[in-house]
């Protein structure tokens, strides 16, 4: 009879854990590689030099035009300025125009650094080598974006000496100027993220560059066009009443007309009595159609220039805070960016808010300073669009890829 034998058990060998790379280490690796590649290019420094010269030339030209305008507004006899009290100084106007130029041309430069960041590697066959390492798709996107953003910020830094020329014109509001620089830096980061996301989602470098410029144009020029179309198609009924003379004023004018008819030589050149100017809000209501601007202001708020103006323009002068209509738009007290902010906030309030007389009641228009800022809405729209594009690009970087476009080079 055989006895069963017990097979000795061996301890299980430890399962080798998959190698890991810290998130920041992966992002830093991609960032350093991408930035070194850019810094090795001689054309990079040539572009910086040309950019400095162009911005300096624009700033000097704008400054000369602004100073000439302010000089012509001085009374030659008294030497006193004819500008309204509280007007924005020449230096501030010069800086605002120059920073708007930097944002406009920066919107053209930023896609250059971002739109080819990943699609160029994919076309050259080097992206597959990077994907075969421990680097994740998210780390590739973060690293490429940081490198593109830093490259675009270098152009903003190169423009600082030229922008400082505006200080020689005097009356700069330094807090507002620093905030403008911060907003421009954020906008360049958003545009770079859009370019990197499109670059990750496309296979052809040329297509990614064109698509990025189309999205940038949609945020800049496209928002203006869509807002104009909406103003012509989206309307609402506005109700208001007219101001009319009080009974006392009507009686005074009637008596004055009778006296002038009786003795025209005596009363023809004399003004109406003061009580004839008394008016009140009438009860008759008139309705008409006006653009419902409060419904589509969020579209215009996504414009990078509107975000810059609403977030960084100098505080409103107390004279302009009553919001009593569009007469103050582009006034000297508001400045360039301040005028843009006033116009957008008046659009946000809607046409009904500008009515001062309705059903016998005198209404007070809302103060523009009390209107909710629109730049968080505009920046939020930009970030949502950027997140959707980056998310789409990240899915295209996940390996193994289930499907590749025809003609795509892997390695």
Supply the key terms.
411 residues, mainly alpha, two-stranded antiparallel ribbon, 14 helices, 4 strands, elongated, ABC transporter permease, ABC-type transporter activity
Write a structural description.
It is a single chain. With 411 residues, the chain is mostly helical. It has a domain at 23-222 and 379-397. It is 59% helix and 7% strand. The chain is built from 14 helices and 4 strands. The strands form 2 sheets. Strands 1-2 form a two-stranded antiparallel sheet. A two-stranded antiparallel sheet has the order 3-4. Strand 3 (357-358) and strand 4 form a beta hairpin. Helix 3 packs antiparallel against helix 6, helix 6 packs antiparallel against helix 7 (174-201) and helix 7 packs across helix 8 (205-233). The termini are far apart. The model is unreliable at 321-330 (pLDDT under 50). The chain crosses the membrane at residues 44-66, 97-118, 148-170, 177-200, 206-234.
